[in-house]
Amino acid sequence: MRLLKIVPDNTNIGFVRLRGIAFAVTLLLSLASVGLVAARGLNLGVDFVGGLLIEAKFPTAAPLDAVRERIDGLDVGEASLQSFDPTTISIRLPLPRSTDEGANNALVAKVEGALSQSFPGVRYNRVETVSGKVSDELIWKGVLAVFLAIAGIALFGVFRFEWQFGVSTFVSILHDVLMTLGFFALTRLEFDLNIVAAVLTIVGYSINDKIVIDDRIRENLRKYRQMPIGELIDLSVNETLPRTVMTSLTILLALVSLLLFGGHVLRGFTAAMILGVIVGTYSSIYVSSSLLISLGIDKSRFKQVAAASDSRKAARANAERIAPKR
Amino acid sequence: MLDFPRWKILSIFGVLLLGVLLAVPSLMPDHTARALGLGGMPRINLGLDLAGGSHILLEADTADVAKTRVAAMEDSVRDSMHAMQPAIDIGDISTADGALSFFVRDPARVDAAVEKIRTLTAPVGSTGTRDWDVKVVDSTRIVLTPTQGGINQFVDQAMKGATDIVRKRIDALGTKEPTIVRQGSDRILVQVPGLQDPAKLKALIGKTAKLEFKLVDTQADPQKVAAGQAPIGDQILRYQNGAPIAVKRRAIITGTDLAKAAQDYDGQTNEPVVSITFGSKGARAFAEVTQQNVGKPFAIVLDNVVLSAPSINEPILGGAARINGNFTVDSAQQLAISLQSGALPIALKTVEERTVGPGLGADSIHAGVVASAIAVALVVAFMLVTYGRFGVYANLAVILNIFVILAAMALLNATLTLPGIAGFVLTIGTAVDANVLINERIREERRRGRNVVQAVELGYKEASRTIFEANVTHAIAGTIMLLLGSGPVKGFAVVLLLGIVTSVFTAVTFTRMLVALWLKRHRPQAIHI
């Protein structure tokens, strides 16, 4: 049996040579994302703007227009209706103007009552109400979480590697997050709490990717002390390319099955993850490693470390050789 | 590398076997597990989004607390000034702007009044501050303002009481395994699995249920009552239909004197009513007042709304009464539960609700399982065609990893949510990353001309460092989600974090053992990778 090799042996793509173009493209896409978010805004879910969500399941094909008409007639504010599958409609309503504790309940009861009357056999799968106060807190917590995650991981990069690695990782992660936000602004997919979890996962995943490459760059810095930095980075990215591609593909396989079969509740989450994996892989290859050249790495620091660890390695190798064979 | 002592092999297999065994009860329905005698084994809880149920976040109205405090203080000030020898005459009492202020008619007695009022305040904590700030303005006016510390203390006490009462009310519904926990300084989180009617639940737990019996002031001028002007010592309340009625401020008896409340039927009309019984002290007070006021009406007031105002036909001596109020059987039952559990010491309102019907939960589980199975199949096939034998080892590791995560979740009594299932699918994808790193490294080392054992050894050694670093960063993201995320997101973070820990064991240690055992047995000169 011949085994599959997605990336052929001894692949040598000149990534570093392309970095000017890559930076330009990256910058352009990031700016476009910021512009999209600023201009169109995100379609924030009830988690973040407050309001009501009722998901109704009909015994037969959901009569979307009839339901819209019925709800518009109730004078409950501007409703937004969405259909996930032929029998299910989700209805989103703004919070009632009255802040009275019973107002939410009354509104839910009013809508459910009207629907049950007009469409016998309808069931309510999901009801969510979030007050303005709670939604403000959720926004704040979500932003804080993403910020802390990026900062924490970049800090880890600085301690574990050199500051240049921390900065390059930080920049490419920022890029990944911006692209995800831009994607949500473009598609108008609902941005809710689950998406924040997806963004955090993307951050974690993307950094995972970068660390693998950074780790190889560090290793090669010790191994090939005379090699020009551009060449060395190309070598490291190419060496780790089979792994980068393999891992991205396996995760994409898993995510695509989740997207297709995991049900509508997770659809936004999975879409965000899929985009994040693609964007993260791109930024690992084209952004973060190439950025290291621009930031400049002090190669002399690696010589000292290398000498120390080399002698230790040699000692260990000898120890293994003299150990009795079984 | 090839050297794996027997005890190590046995313990690795032992851990995996334990993992599989502990995961089993969670994989079967509750009743099957119990039928097989596994009911006592740790199980994974299903989150509300999978099991169906309601998640309700209640928030206390802290502004209301300050108001009630000021009102209560007004009563104690009136009483204590009246009780002084001789009584201190006060007037122009105002409770506006969250402070109590009044005027002392005799300027010579202001100091005595202040001294007396200071005894009504209490210290807060050990910082030396008190719960009320007492000031004299314009030399004759005394102003009492509750301090922030005082309000906090009162909210805290009220919240403790409210949490207990909410728990009692939900227990009375007889639902299975509800969760009622206090969150932060002024919130209560209620989670009730499998409930069908969240509106009923909210109506029940959010009802203050402050019951008072008050005498009706029959002498009040109907025109003034209609205009909302209450005679001295009276207050204007409204019926359910909005009609005003003047009643005495002071209650004859309140819900705190209740011994028992139950839903019942009216003997004549067969309407649902709530029958109540007072304790001995309450019964005595009730008997006394009803003896003195035969023929006069009294109002039954619930949360400041008059339910009815029957006339006292004869003295009520037994301490039993009936509350009529156009109830349905359901609403009478709810009121009985609310009264029996006592009044909430603080008004609560729902600030967040998430209810998932059992149907959607079951659909989600089904979709999640299907998606996971397909994801596993795809990844397994992909690994197999890419790495051959080494792919088989990685696949074994991935599948065992799923069991080990389930076992760890069961042991931790963790909750599986829908995003948690997504976490599983993602873990399947990322767990093989460790094996990809190792296998790619082995391929590389083989290309550099190292022999089989050296290549495998270097592959594991060099990749382990990278795997460690990658996992730490993942764990940072996961921990933040666990700390800051709410319900479902937390469930995702739990699976992600456990997956990081267990995948190091299955993807690195376990596969390394499998490779070592194979190499030792066959000593191959070349490997197919």
TrEMBL record, chain A:
Keyword Transmembrane helix carried by entry: yes
Compartment(s) of residence: Cell membrane
Presence of keyword Metal-binding: no
The entry's keywords: Cell membrane, Membrane, Protein transport, Translocation, Transmembrane, Transmembrane helix, Transport
Domain Protein export membrane protein SecD/SecF C-terminal intervals: 114-295
InterPro entries tied to this protein: SecD/SecF_arch_bac, SecD/SecF_bac, SecD/SecF_CS, SecD_SecF_C, SecD_SecF_C_bact, SecF_bac
Membrane spanning residue stretches: 21-42, 138-158, 165-187, 193-213, 245-266, 272-293
Membrane topology value: Multi-pass membrane protein
Gene3D superfamilies to which the protein is assigned, alphabetical: Multidrug efflux transporter AcrB transmembrane domain
Principal localisation: membrane
Pfam family, one: SecD_SecF_C
Origin superkingdom: Bacteria
Protein's job: Part of the Sec protein translocase complex. Interacts with the SecYEG preprotein conducting channel. SecDF uses the proton motive force (PMF) to complete protein translocation after the ATP-dependent function of SecA.
Subunit composition and interactions: Forms a complex with SecD. Part of the essential Sec protein translocation apparatus which comprises SecA, SecYEG and auxiliary proteins SecDF-YajC and YidC.
Membership in a protein family: Belongs to the SecD/SecF family. SecF subfamily.
Protein name, entry field: Protein-export membrane protein SecF
UniProt lineage: Bacteria, Pseudomonadati, Pseudomonadota, Alphaproteobacteria, Sphingomonadales
Automatic annotation (TrEMBL), chain B:
Residue span, Protein export membrane protein SecD/SecF C-terminal domain: 349-519
Superkingdom to which the source organism belongs: Bacteria
Membrane topology field: Multi-pass membrane protein
Transmembrane segments annotated in the record for this chain: 365-385, 392-412, 418-438, 467-486, 492-519
Protein translocase subunit SecDF P1 domain ranges (all copies): 159-217
Main location: membrane
Keywords: Cell membrane, Membrane, Protein transport, Translocation, Transmembrane, Transmembrane helix, Transport
Pfam families xref list: Sec_GG (PF07549), SecD_1st (PF21760), SecD_SecF_C (PF02355), SecDF_P1_head (PF22599)
Domain SecDF P1 head subdomain: 237-346
Record's subcellular location: Cell membrane
SUPFAM superfamilies per record: Multidrug efflux transporter AcrB transmembrane domain (SSF82866)
Complex formation: Forms a complex with SecF. Part of the essential Sec protein translocation apparatus which comprises SecA, SecYEG and auxiliary proteins SecDF-YajC and YidC.
Family as reported in the entry's similarity comment: Belongs to the SecD/SecF family. SecD subfamily.
Protein name per its UniProtKB record: Protein translocase subunit SecD
Organism per entry: Sphingomonas morindae
Gene name tied to this protein: secD
